[in-house]
Structure formats: C-alpha cells, structure tokens
Amino acid sequence: MARVLIYGGTGGIGLATARALRARDVALHLVARDAAGLERAASDLGETTVTAGDVTDPSLFALATAAAGEALAGLVFAVGSITLKPIGRLSAQEIEADFRLNALGAFLAVQAAAPALKAGAGESTSGIVLFSTVAAAQGFSAHVSVAMAKGAVEGLALSLAAELSPSVRVNVIAPSLTRTNLARPLTANETVANGIAGMHAVPRLGTPEDAGALAAFLVSDDAGWITGQVIGVDGGRSSVRTKG
C-alpha cells in the first residue's frame, strides 16, 4: 500500500492530518523530532511507520523517503515557525533559520520524494500539501520573517505544480492563527486570543482539525482536479471584513 509521508507528524496540524488520512484508510509514514511522540502516534494510528529527525538536517529527507517506500500517495510538509518581531529587532540569523525550516525544508522534502510520488500516482495522481500562512498575503505588522519564508513556500508550490504535472498535484494551505503548541505564546492568554478571534468573520481561532481535514482531502483522489492553489483556512481573515 502506497503511503502518505507527513513531516511534522506529531505537531498539531500534522497529527490532525494523520488522523484524517487514517479515517480514509490511508497508510502513513510520519517524520518528527519527537521520537517518543512518533512511537505513540504510530501505536494509536495503526498502519504507520516513522522516522525521527530534524528537518534542518539535509540528510533526513533521503532517509525518510526511503523508509516510506518506493511509491508514495502523497506528501504533507506540516512544519512551521512563528517569529514575530519588528524589522529593527530581527537578526539575519533568525531570517535564515525561518527560511531554512519552512522554505528550504519544503524544497528538500519534495526533491527527495518526487520520484516516489510519481511512482505512486499510477493511473491517477499523487498529492503534495505545503503550509503557508494568511500573513504571507495580508501584510501584518511584525510578521516579516515568517511572511518571507512562507511566501517562498507559495512560490515553490506554484512552480512545482507546473513542473510535476500531470502526475503530481501541489497545493498550499494558508491558515490563520490556530490553537497549536507552536502558537501557544499567542493563544495562552484568553483575552488576547479572543481579541484575535474577533478579527475573523467566523469569530474563533482555528483548530488543527480545520487544516488537517483539508490537507487529507487535497492529498486524496477526491481533489484530483485541484492543483496550484493557495487555500485559506482562516475564518475569512484573508478576504472578509465584517467591520469598517
């Protein structure tokens, strides 16, 4: 059975994607830094193999792809960062770290997996899902580093959608603020969280399941005519204003 390879498989959105795919009876290969978390996830999910490693290590991608199998049904790169600082407080090292984690990591993941994704397409297609952020297109203050890195992910995805067609589809999910461990510094204070939630047409913060359900759909054959898209899972934040 061809597997879907998920980077960030123990994180909030990555694990929610894994659960949504297992509900579709899809076999998985999860990659994350948390070896113990990977083993727990594999035990809970079933039909799941794992590779422990850090996506900032370039050697990880060949190892993970080989362990996932010669044919892949899909690839999900659910890895991200939230570096929120005004430009005067940002260092070149922080910018580089965000780019390496988000954009270079996504590139290396796809580069390593492309032959297996083409092999797994069969008579249909395989699917790649990368993650951006609503901030890449909206221009939020203090989001320079993450918006730059995720903007590069969107450019990467559009180029790959052309290059890897017709056998491999490539799409991007751009969430707004979602209740994950990564976002906890912003969501732990309920007054702050409620204020941000109120900026959305659907006035709540996202959940990992919101993005995970869409990622599982985009990987599947149900999305067989969808490629080259950046799709907001953002409560309307990217396009809808209810006040002013």
Automatic annotation (TrEMBL):
- Which SMART domains does the annotation name? PKS_KR
Q: Which SUPFAM superfamilies match?
A: NAD(P)-binding Rossmann-fold domains
Residues annotated as domain Ketoreductase:
2-176
From the record, what ranges are coiled-coil? none
CDD domains under this entry? SDR_c
Print the keywords alphabetically. Answer: Oxidoreductase
The superkingdom listed in its UniProt entry is Bacteria
The UniProt entry, under Pfam families, shows: adh_short_C2 (PF13561)
For this chain, the family text in UniProt reads: Belongs to the short-chain dehydrogenases/reductases (SDR) family.
- Protein name (database record): 2-(S)-hydroxypropyl-CoM dehydrogenase
